[in-house]
Amino acid sequence: MRFINPKTDFAFKKIFGGKESKPILISFLNALIYKGHPTITDLEIIDPYLPSRVSYLKESYLDVKAKLALGQTVIIEMQVLNVASFAKRVIYNAAKTYSTQLIRGEGYFNLKPVIALTITDFEMFENDREVISHFVFKEKKRLFEYPDPGMEMIFIELPKFNKQLDQLETLTDKWVYFMKNAPSLEVVPSTMENVSEIQQAFAIANETNLNPEELKDLEDRERYIMDQQGILRKGIQEGREEGLAQGQEEGREEGREEGREEGLALGMREKALEIARQLLNVLDNQTISQTTGLSVEDIENLREE
Known about the structure:
The chain is built from nine helices and six strands. It has helices at about 10-15, 20-35, 85-100, 170-180, 195-205, 210-255, 255-280, 285-290, 295-305; strands at about 45, 65-70, 75-80, 115-120, 130-135, 150-155. It has a six-stranded mixed β-sheet, with helices on both faces. A hairpin with a 4-residue loop joins strand 2 and strand 3.
């Protein structure tokens, strides 16, 4: 068997947002939001692309949207590429979903909490090694929670999850493993057979259940993602090579080891700055800093030029 990649938007929607996906999504959300506890007993999967009540608001980038039995709304997004201002986009989508619950004349007491669940195929928080991060409104110094926070944001960073099949213990482990490794599996692992919802997810993800049009759509989306990742890697590599060559040339002209080292550093920095300028409209400051070796302050200065 071959399984489609749940990290693509097409596959993610098919697995978690389809007509047969309700029990799958309940198990998935209980695992990732409530640490496997059966807190969610019922939900309604709704179209995340329904027109906004406020016509001028920007389009949302949601993959799946669900309303829980107690009224909370969960918006779920799977993000593969670390695009510019992604962190701001998560906040925007959560705030938009929260604020557009009301129509003119309705009281604020009608507002229900919004939970933004974001799964990333890149590291968002580089200085922290936890796979799951949960953000809520708290007082900055004394850390008590806001009386009615309204919004929560939960992030699952797949690259930080390194458990193997024989190490999967919790429902959370199993769902995160499914998200990260499903395309590389040939059978449903025995350690996951006792979770019927995960078995259902594997059944939907089985390539033999897709029609030719769906397979082509999936392949096109995967190719696009690989192309974008390849463009970024190629740009970084070319920048490093050009910077090295420029630095070596300047070093030879100086005729001294010190000149060579300074020329190398200068050449690499100039190329890094050039690459960073090209990425300003594509990636956020932290990611540009990581890929080019420049400081976040350098990137901020470039944005102000």
